[in-house]
Specification:
The chain has about 140 residues and is mainly α. The protein has 2 domains: about 1-30; about 30-140. Helices cover about 65% and strands about 5% of the residues. The protein contains 4 helices and 2 strands. It has a two-stranded antiparallel ribbon with strand order 1-2. The termini are far apart.
Length: about 140
C-alpha cells in the first residue's frame, strides 16, 4: 500500500472521528429527558416491571430510576454491533485466507499468510462471542435482577 494513501486514510479517519461527535453534540434542539429501552434486558428493577422492548423511560419521573435500564440498554446495543462487526470481518478474513491458500501454489510464505488470516479470524470470532457475554457481566457487576 502506498504511504501517501495510508497517511491520507489515517488523516480522514481522524478528521471524521473529531467532526462527527462535535456536530452531533452541537445539535441542541432536543432535551435529554429519557431513553428508549430497545432491548429485552431481562431485569425487574426498571419502573415498568420486566422490561421488554420497546419501552420509554423518563428521567424526569421522580418515582423511578431509569439509569440502570438505560445503561444496560446501551451495553446491549454496543455489544450487539461489536458482535455483528467482528463476525462480518471474521467471515471476510476466512474467505481471504481460503482464497490465499488456494492460490498459494505451494509457496510457503503465502501458505503461512493464509494460515495467519484464518487464525486471526478465529480470534475475531472468539472475541465476538465474548462480546455477547459482556451484558451479563455488566448485569452481575451492577447487581441487576
Amino acid at each position: 500500500m502506498n504511504k501517501k494513501f495510508l497517511s491520507l486514510l489515517i488523516f480522514v479517519s481522524l478528521l471524521v472521528a473529531i467532526i462527527v461527535p462535535v456536530s452531533v453534540f452541537a445539535d441542541n434542539t432536543t432535551a435529554l429527558n429519557g431513553c428508549n429501552i430497545t432491548n429485552d434486558l431481562g431485569v425487574t428493577q426498571c419502573p415498568v416491571g420486566s422490561v421488554t422492548a420497546p419501552v420509554a423511560c423518563d428521567y424526569n419521573n421522580t418515582n423511578f430510576s431509569c439509569g440502570l435500564c438505560c445503561l444496560l440498554n446501551a451495553v446491549y446495543t454496543v455489544t450487539f454491533w461489536i458482535f455483528i462487526g467482528l463476525m462480518a470481518i471474521s467471515a471476510l478474513m476466512i474467505i481471504l485466507g481460503a482464497f490465499t491458500f488456494v492460490t498459494s501454489g505451494g509457496n510457503p510464505d503465502k501458505t503461512t499468510q493464509a494460515r495467519n488470516y484464518i487464525i486471526f479470524a478465529a480470534i475475531g470470532i472468539a472475541v465476538a462471542l465474548f462480546s455477547r457475554a459482556v451484558p451479563s457481566l455488566v448485569k452481575l457487576i451492577v447487581g441487576a435482577q
